[in-house]
Amino acid sequence: PEEAVSDDRSRHGGRVRGFPHERGNWATHVYLPYIAQEEFLELLELLVSRARTYVPSLAAMEEFHLSLSQCVVLRYHWIEPFVRSLRERLAALHRFFCVADQVKVYTNQNKTRTFIGLEVSAGHFQLLELVSEVDAVLKEFDLPTFYKDPSFHISLAWCVGDLSGRLEGQCLRELQDIVDGFEESAFLLRIQWEQIRCKSGNKYFSFPLR
């Protein structure tokens, strides 16, 4: 029998689901994983500490990635063919570098969460190539494709609600100054992407770049 699943916000920091949980539906996301080095975590601590003087509820991300798809819903029996199609589409793609060094404030589509992220300033074309391949797979399964004119970024911190007004302007300028002045930033924020990952529910699939 279908079982109702309660959506207890206290279990996930007050975040609101983008869509209701339903048995047999698997939230699915395609992305480039970023493994944080110690120096990156030092930079993150400086940024979050400064940003909390404007928004005390800000929480640092625990894992880092750059999205290549929206979060979409797959039925369980679609997961295997979806991953197989992704693997075929991504098999010929090569590793590449990008630079993510521009601090930017984002909100999600329904304005229930605000993020501070590092936007990509170089490597945009290669990322669009990846998105084009991922979008082709999403279309096969009649799923929503990625945003038009995406702002590729790595999210660093988040809070509940639309608090973008507090973080933009003076706060954003101070955060950019921290990034620009951080001794290791030129090295840290030039990132070589080596694999693409797909998360579907609690399952992870990896696609190495050549």
TrEMBL record:
GO terms for cellular component: nucleus. Keywords: Hydrolase, Lyase, Nuclease, Nucleus. It catalyses: a 3'-end uridylyl-uridine-RNA = a 3'-end 2',3'-cyclophospho-uridine-RNA + uridine; a 3'-end uridylyl-adenosine-RNA = a 3'-end 2',3'-cyclophospho-uridine-RNA + adenosine. One of its GO terms (biological process) is U6 snRNA 3'-end processing. HAMAP family: USB1. 3'-5' RNA exonuclease that trims the 3' end of oligo(U) and oligo(A) tracts of the pre-U6 small nuclear RNA (snRNA) molecule, leading to the formation of a mature U6 snRNA 3' end-terminated with a 2',3'-cyclic phosphate. Participates in the U6 snRNA 3' end processing that prevents U6 snRNA degradation. In addition also removes uridines from the 3' end of U6atac snRNA and possibly the vault RNA VTRNA1-1. This is U6 snRNA phosphodiesterase 1. It comes from Rhabdornis inornatus.
